[in-house]
Write a structure and sequence with these properties.
18 helices, alpha/beta
């Protein structure tokens, strides 16, 4: 993060600057509430009218009073300023203002008005718009949080950052710091600046060639990933190149660097930047009861299958790889507890949440969440399963005790075993085909013979139908196939090293047979004897071998 603006600019200070070359319209979302009018005015006064960007102001407004925001802001800039009246095609160098009576999203290059969410005295209109902006513009999305009370926008900022966009929050100059503070606390704000400083960075962003995607340089890219791997043990060489490149280019923009070679030297000299790049590559959007329909389907069609034959001596085991800060894990725990109670079944529930990030695992264990993360949690669940804290809520002890969190790299580390359900949503989409093949094979090994796999909405088992049957194609729910033996598809660690040094080889080169269970048994037997247990750092037993 960078904080504090060290300059003040006169009104329309950059009108004489040479205008950038025309490019596809980039959209800047601006969220504000109490005290936000003055902040938006300061932003527009310091902003060039020739950025080629469109600016969309989403503000909390009283639906019972006519808004004069467009009229007032029109005095602060030479760009056209208009309140959105209906479906509106977005044009560059224009300012658009949300009406007081509606919510708004961006879709297919147009602003669309929607009814305000019922049941909300203060609907999360900023989060809703930012979420749509992240989906629409991906890594080109820009989100700004200015003065305001509450936490609206904090969730949307995370989604913009997750897509590789650039995010801002107002510094101590905010008249009301609730919204900026909530956004900053989420860990996804790139710049903390006064409105004038934000204006300056927006102009710099508008000058970036090719939307911040660096040119092809496979050797330099692999060298950057090697520095990262040597420092963190995290290997991103088999993650999709487009995703990795966009995340690196985002860091280059924030570091004010234009060439991959310069960035390579920069991370070698700045360990803090290695950590920042690592976090950018790991960033993941998650929330409680994400895609609520999935949880309804699990309760109706999947959980009944999983508890068959279970008793007080046979727990129901769930694994959530890539669990981030734990929202998915706790959502499944709550759903399972509710289901087991409804069925009056005496079935213990144990859920393993794993992630490659130490920071995420530590936060997940604590189980504390800001208000912005709980938008999909019903008041009833909030009362029953959460405890109020000064900054938000914490999962209660009865749920936390059912959840075990550990650092684990699903692409390299041995998997769990004897699992009834694996929920791995939106991880495979970031992996190249050979690594997807390996991970799906390990999931097959980890699941019991009647185990269930749940993937994300954009994922599928693809060419690996020999391992899984499709149970629910709409909700991406699959059941494990029972096959003779276990063909451990994928590549060994030796082949993984070969992949890093020879990235252009065909994926078939890495599909030599690999029996993970055999090698794990051999390693444990050689060092500890035929009996043993696998424990985590909390001294909780994860696996048992032998008597």
């Amino acid at each position: 993060m960078r904080s504090g603006a060290n300059f003040k600019q006169p009104p329309h200070y950059n009108e004489t600057r040479e205008s950038p070359k025309p490019k596809a319209c980039q959209i800047v979302g601006i969220g504000a509430s109490a005290g936000g009018l003055e902040a938006v005015q300061d932003l527009l006064i310091g902003l060039s009218t020739h950025t080629g960007m469109a600016f969309v102001l989403v503000q909390h407004l009283d639906p019972n009073h006519e808004s004069r925001f467009a009229e007032i802001l029109g005095r602060a800039t030479k760009m056209p300023v208009a309140e959105v009246k209906g479906d509106t095609t977005i044009e560059p160098n224009h300012v658009y203002v949300i009406p007081s009576t509606a919510s708004m999203i961006v879709e297919n290059g147009k602003l669309k008005l929607l009814p305000r969410e019922e049941g909300h005295a203060r609907p999360l209109v900023i989060d809703r718009f930012f979420s749509s902006l992240a989906k629409e513009q991906k890594h080109r999305a820009i989100g700004i949080i200015l003065s305001g009370t509450g936490s609206d926008g904090a969730r949307g900022i995370i989604e913009i950052r997750a897509e590789g966009g650039v995010t801002f929050a107002q510094d101590k100059s905010a008249k009301q710091d609730g919204m900026p503070t909530a956004a900053i606390a989420g860990g996804s704000v790139d710049y903390i600046l006064a409105p004038e400083g934000i204006a300056n960075e927006l102009f710099r962003l508008s000058q970036e060639p090719n939307q911040r995607v660096p040119g092809e340089s496979s050797g330099t890219l692999l060298a950057i990933l090697k520095v990262l791997r040597d420092s963190t043990r995290a290997d991103f060489s088999s993650y999709k190149k487009g995703t990795v490149t966009r995340r690196i280019s985002r860091r280059m923009f924030l570091c004010k660097l234009e060439k991959l070679e310069d960035y390579l030297e920069y991370i070698k000299a700045n360990p803090s930047e290695i950590s920042a790049l690592h976090q950018d590559l790991l960033i993941n959007v998650t929330s409680f009861f994400r895609d609520p329909e999935i949880f309804d389907v699990l309760k109706k069609d999947v959980f009944p299958l999983l508890i068959q034959g279970k008793s007080a001596n046979r727990s129901l085991r769930v694994w959530v790889p890539g669990c981030a800060t734990g929202e998915e894990v706790y959502s499944l725990a709550i759903s399972l507890v509710e289901f087991v109670e409804d069925q009056k079944a005496d079935v213990p529930v144990q859920i393993f949440g794993t992630d490659i990030s130490d920071t995420c695992v530590d936060r997940a264990r604590v189980g504390e969440f800001a208000n912005a993360s709980l938008a999909e949690v019903s008041p009833e669940r909030l009362r029953r399963f959460f405890l109020k804290t000064p900054t938000g809520y914490q999962i209660n002890k009865s749920i936390r005790e059912k959840c075990v969190f550990a650092k684990h790299d699903v692409t390299q580390d041995p998997p769990f075993s004897g699992v009834d359900l694996i929920s791995c949503r939106n991880l495979l989409i970031y992996l190249e085909a050979p690594l997807q093949k390996r991970v799906l094979s390990l999931f097959h090994y980890a699941l019991k013979s009647d185990g269930i796999l749940v993937l994300g909405g954009s994922e599928n088992i693809g060419a690996y139908g020999e391992l899984f049957n499709t149970r629910d194609p709409k909700h991406k729910i699959f059941s494990r196939k029972v096959i003779a033996g276990h063909p451990h598809l994928g590549f060994t660690r030796g082949a993984a090293k070969q992949l890093r040094s020879e990235p252009d080889k065909k994926s078939e080169s890495y599909s030599e047979p690999y029996d993970l269970s055999r090698d794990a048994d051999r390693a444990i037997a050689a060092k500890f004897g035929p009996q043993g247990v696998v424990i985590n750092e909390a001294m909780e037993i994860l696996q048992i071998r032998g008597k």
